[in-house]
Amino acid sequence: MLLPIYLYGHPVLRAETEEITPDYPDLQKLIADMWETMYNSEGVGLAAPQIGKSIRLIVIDGSVLADEFPECKDSKMVLINPELDVIEDMEPVSRAEGCLSIPGVSENVKRVEHVRLNWLDENFVEHEKDFFGFLARIIQHECDHLEQTVYTDHISPIRKQLIRSKLNNISKGKVRCDYRTKAPSK
């Protein structure tokens, strides 16, 4: 089932997230709905707060970017209760980022390109792995959503001021998307 993407300004994007357990109600259906919603929205990642759930759950599939970023090949994964460790062994790289919750806006964000991630998959099997390059960026971006952060929090105050009217319009639901959205209540 296609779920609406909650837009910038919605309180759920700033709400604390809770860990989930194997007995979380209808978890497999929720994961399937998140995949369907992400692919329909042409995203490469989707965090549960973006669909109105304050839980620590993410789906990622950057495979569509593999021609430009080979590290994204075969990157389809479900992240339950992820714990991210940013490895600062390289200089941060500035690249354009966008977000399904902030449609029509893209800004350069500096991020490191090496992270270590601990997580549970959809079968609650534990994993630990290092990720590099653009895939590390996708993981950081989605994990930010679990920490009440959106990518515009990482841009300079001047850039934020320059896009303030766009962000205000998005928070009022004044945005055109090819996917379902849910604006903050008035």
Estimate percent helicity.
10-25%
Tell me the number of helical segments per DSSP (H or I, 4 or more residues long): 4
Percent of residues in beta strands? 25-35%
The N- and C-terminal alpha carbons lie at a distance of 26 Å
Instruction: Please outline the major beta sheet.
Output: 5 strands, antiparallel
- Corresponding CATH architecture: Alpha-Beta Complex
Our Rg estimate from Cα atoms comes to 16 Å
What average pLDDT do the residues reach?
96
Total strand count, please?
9
Report on this model:
By secondary structure, the chain is of the alpha+beta class. The protein has a single domain (5-182), classed as Peptide deformylase (Peptide Deformylase), CATH 3.90.45. The protein has four helices and nine strands; from the N terminus they run E-H-E-E-E-E-E-E-E-H-H-H-E. The strands form three sheets. The chain has a five-stranded antiparallel β-sheet with strand order 2-3-4-7-8. A hairpin with a 5-residue loop joins strand 7 (114-120) and strand 8 (126-132). It is globular and about 45 Å long. The model has no long low-confidence stretch (mean pLDDT 96).
Helix-strand layout with pairing:
Blueprint (H helix, E strand, L loop, with lengths): L4 E2 L20 H14 L4 E3 L9 E4 L16 E10 L6 E7 L2 E10 L2 E7 L5 E7 H14 L10 H6 L1 H8 L9 E2 L4
Parallel strand pairs: 1-9
Antiparallel strand pairs: 2-3, 3-4, 4-7, 5-6, 7-8
